[in-house]
Design brief:
Layout lengths: L12 E11 L8 E11 L14 H9 L7 E9 L2 E2 L5 H7 L4 E4 L3 H4 L6 H10 L6 H14 L5 H4 L9 H13 L5 E4 L8 H9 L1
Parallel strand pairs: 5-6
Antiparallel strand pairs: 1-2, 1-3, 3-4
Helix pairs in contact: 4-5, 5-7
Length: 206
């Protein structure tokens, strides 16, 4: 996948990707998941990366998040978040950025959510990891977020486990988690793929 690039003033840029190349394991049909992709995301801008299945969209998103599986290797490139180059950044520093500076809504919320934790506890955990406030403050914020994303009966849903929710409700929970700390960059990796048409429209309106 190759993207064209348009020059943008550095102070306007929230996310900058330059010449990103990610290698696939040996024996695959091709050697690269993405090759020499470059783009800038300005503050307040919506940027769409379009491509067929397998073209490297999810790999690009996971590379930005620092979540590449070990079998896929970052070969070259620069990724800057808020002016910080995150390539080679320590795991602790990356964890500090996730949720606070950059968040991601994954394709499949059922596999992304922890089945052993209630949805409320998972939203709380995002905030607590960054010192958001007291447990009560986290709980209040979680219920507020569930309300904002249109989850029915937010106080009840706060105590539910992911398997008890519908696909649309789980995706709304994922969106609430991603928005919890109001990150500068929000990555949505085909968040409506597994949903019916009506639910897709509702999620996109969020």
């Amino acid at each position: 996948m190759v993207a064209s690039i348009q020059a943008v003033a550095p102070h306007d840029v929230a996310l900058s990707v330059r010449d990103l190349t990610v290698n696939l394991p040996q024996g695959m049909e091709r050697t690269h998941a993405v090759k020499n992709i470059s783009f800038d995301l300005k503050r307040g801008q919506i940027l769409c990366i379009i491509g067929e299945s397998g073209s490297g969209k999810s790999v690009t998103a996971n590379t930005i998040m620092g979540l590449l599986p070990k079998v896929i290797r970052l070969s070259s490139g620069v990724i800057q978040l808020e002016g910080m180059n995150i390539i080679g950044m320590s795991p602790d520093k990356l964890r500090n950025l996730r949720g606070r500076v950059v968040s991601m809504i994954f394709q499949d919320p059922l596999s992304a959510l922890n089945p052993l934790m209630t949805v409320g506890a998972q939203i709380d955990e995002v905030m607590a990891a960054h010192g958001f406030g007291t447990p009560q403050a986290c709980r209040n914020r979680a219920i507020e977020l569930l309300t904002e994303v249109g989850v029915p009966d937010p106080e009840l849903m706060y105590h539910q486990y992911p398997f008890r929710l519908s696909g649309g409700q789980r995706q709304r929970v994922m969106i609430a988690m991603a928005l919890a700390l109001e990150p500068t960059v929000l990555i949505a990796d085909e968040p409506t793929t597994a949903l019916d048409v009506t639910t897709q429209a509702q999620i996109l309106q969020l």
